[in-house]
Amino acid sequence: MAERVVLAYSGGLDTSVGIGWLKDATGKEVVALAIDVGQGGENMDDIRQRALDCGAVESLVVDAKEEFANDYLMPALKANAMYQKTYPLVSALSRPLISKHLARVAKELGASSVAHGCTGKGNDQVRFEAAIAALAPDLTSIAPVRDLALTRDKAILYAEEHNLPIRQSAKNPYSIDKNVWGRAVETGFLEDPWNAPIEDLYEYTQDPTIPREADEVTITFVAGIPTAIDGVSYTPLGIVEQLNTLAGKHGVGRIDVVEDRLIGIKSREVYEAPAAVALITAHEALEALTLERDLARYKRGVEAEWSNLVYDGLWFSGLKRSLDVFIDDTQKYVSGDIRLKLQGGRATVTGQKSAQSLYDFDLATYDTGDTFDQSLSKGFIEIWSLPSRISARRDLAGS
Fold this sequence. Notes:
The protein is α/β, with parallel strands linked by helices and 399 residues long. It has helices at residues 13-26, 44-53, 65-78, 90-109, 124-135, 144-147, 152-161, 236-248, 274-290, 293-311, 318-330, 361-364, 375-384, 386-398; strands spanning 4-8, 29-36, 58-63, 113-115, 140-142, 175-179, 182-186, 215-222, 225-229, 232-233, 254-260, 266-272, 336-343, 346-353. 43% of the residues lie in helices and 20% in strands. Strand 6 and strand 7 (182-186) form a beta hairpin. The longest helix is centred in the N-terminal third of the chain and has 20 residues, at 90-109. L-aspartate binds at residues 119, 123-124. Residues 4-165 form the Arginosuccinate synthase-like N-terminal domain.
């Protein structure tokens, strides 16, 4: 049997052409592996058949939607993961999952290499290859676009010459990546940050400027994981899918950001992530109710580091694993209900309750019945500010 290479297959132009291109350049037979992470659109059976029609010796499809939601999106939610405080890691979260299955299939087939369709300019090349290095260090990673000079114009010409069954997606001015957590759009006229996004860019969200009656939803969490909407239980995947519809209807989760890529350049990105933004908003509100002050403050720094690690392709790193342990421990009491108002592009918290709440009405109220002994505050402030007082006297004496 000829040596094989396992290709992460999307069904698009680059990976479809990449099947023949890889075989011509390396002499290896190509096994196409498509992973369903809730991207929607084309039927996965059609994508599987397209790979075969483009020359793959074998074409595999893995339904990983539940795995993606349970093992990747829920840890991200517990971490309130937002790169640059803005981007909920839509693409970054799917790459380690795809890499895991690439490595698994390569081992099962005895292949010595895997391949992906990334360019040499983006983050995803790093994410795929760093994950493969951590999971299967003996595997070699090949990127036809980057390593084998498969440019866009060559890909189009190759597809035409070989009569490959590929849609004319090459005419689409945008580069789009999507999964159940959100959708990323770049290139085309968006490469000029002065150009405002147009409505045609969006698929998961409706125009938030169109007046609509607000919707209210109540999300139930157990130990940091959403388990129900308005009292109806769902799996994590079901929760995300439901909120994509409910929050997307109101244009929640539209993001326009100039992003600092790992490779050192800035890139203008447009995202829509209705469920991600709604869930993180609700989860943060519940943490504010249930986490003690110092733990909440420290966790914010951990969240930023966790987000940076995942963005940078280090999902399987030792530091990321250790931070996961810390984050999981913080979620012990993050259970309760958060009510959100969805309207005009925003998810606004309008109610919060938890049996584990640290909010004490009798301590917080300013009305009669207040149990907080205000007489203790004067001495506390004297002691708290004592170092500042002492250093101020020194500063004044030396001036």
